[in-house]
Design goal:
This protein is of the alpha/beta class. About 30% of the residues lie in helices and about 15% in strands. It is built from ten helices and twelve strands. The strands form three sheets. The protein has a five-stranded parallel beta sheet with strand order 1-7-6-2-3. The chain has a five-stranded parallel beta sheet with strand order 8-12-11-9-10. The chain has a two-stranded antiparallel ribbon with strand order 4-5. β4 and β5 form a beta hairpin. The protein starts with about 20 loop residues before the first strand and ends in a 5-residue tail after the last helix.
């Protein structure tokens, strides 16, 4: 057991997760940002980012001390909100001082935004990506101090330090999604509400209602709310026990070891499901970046 502040937070990590270091609590992050000794400390070179979409003004009003702001508009591109090119993604990370061996800790006011970046960091090859469980709302609920003003800055990195992207298998496109379905032993997991999955609703004003034939329902949250992942979260926004998440997936034939690509409308909810599966140590997982939005606009194969 560590001494001092760490005595109170050493048991905060989740024993039900294979990658338990990668899901951190507000108490752990408060200790780290205060300069205390913490369990499972990050590398000497670490970065903390609040991830949002058009929320820079809110960030300047209140944020976790030491954080910088990272907008998802930088990592997604029109018309389908898929990730930017590899060259653009690499440039963004280097400009923010992120190499493959940099520990990157993420949180969001909407933690789906943080999960979106977390997935792309893993795709890029950042070895130590961590997510604040419950995001900024849980930080505030814990009574932790906030900072005001512009983001912290860091020197740019001169190089990524390894091949880029190091894990291209973590992201697939429409041709690969079609091939996965055709294999018979692969799964496309729809991380959408029941109404979206059954075609009763779109969830987005710019996406037609419907879903991918042959996909399995991986669940999301409340109907009518594309920002809800209540099937995965406790009331305080923290991740449900891994066994509960695995059980609800198993009901739909989504099983560990089966090649599985998670998708949603445009990628945020799918990224959260991917990250949780990754925390649980599931192999052969990916995100179908285009999701239902791209699939619905792509002519059928053949």
């Amino acid at each position: 057991m560590l001494s001092g502040f760490a005595d109170n937070i050493a048991t905060d990590f989740r024993p039900d997760l294979v990658r338990w270091r990668q899901l951190v609590t507000p108490a752990w992050l408060a200790g780290l940002t205060a300069g205390a000794e913490v369990e499972a400390p990050p590398a000497a070179d670490w970065r903390l980012f609040e991830v949002g979409c058009g929320a820079a003004v809110l960030f300047e009003q209140a944020h976790v001390p030491g954080a910088s702001y990272f907008d998802t508009a930088c990592i997604e591109q029109l018309p389908l909100w898929n990730k930017v090119t590899d060259q653009a993604l690499l440039a963004l990370l280097l400009a923010r001082g992120v190499r493959h061996d940099t520990t990157v800790i993420l949180y969001g006011r909407n933690n789906l935004a943080a999960a979106r970046l977390a997935h792309l960091l893993l795709y890029a090859g950042v070895a130590d990506v961590r997510l604040l469980d419950g995001g900024f709302a849980r930080w505030q609920a814990g009574g932790h101090a906030c900072a005001r003003g512009p983001a912290a800055t860091a020197a740019a990195a001169s190089g990524f330090g390894t091949i880029f992207p190091a894990h291209p298998e973590y992201l697939i496109g429409t041709p690969q999604a079609r091939a996965l379905l055709a294999r018979g032993d692969g799964v496309l997991a729809s991380i959408r509400t029941r109404a979206e999955f059954t075609g009763q609703a779109s969830g987005y004003h710019y996406i037609a209602a419907g879903d991918i034939p042959g996909a399995r329902w991986g669940r999301a949250g409340e109907d009518g709310d594309v920002n809800s992942m209540s099937a995965y979260h406790e009331a305080d926004g923290s991740m449900k026990p891994a066994a509960e998440i695995a059980a609800q997936w198993a009901e739909q034939g989504i099983l560990p070891g089966t090649p599985t690509a998670f998708y949603c409308g445009t990628g945020w909810r799918a990224s959260m499901a991917f990250f949780y599966a990754w925390l649980m140590g599931w192999p052969a997982i990916s995100v179908y970046d285009g999701g239902w939005f791209e699939w619905s606009q792509t002519p059928p194969a053949g």
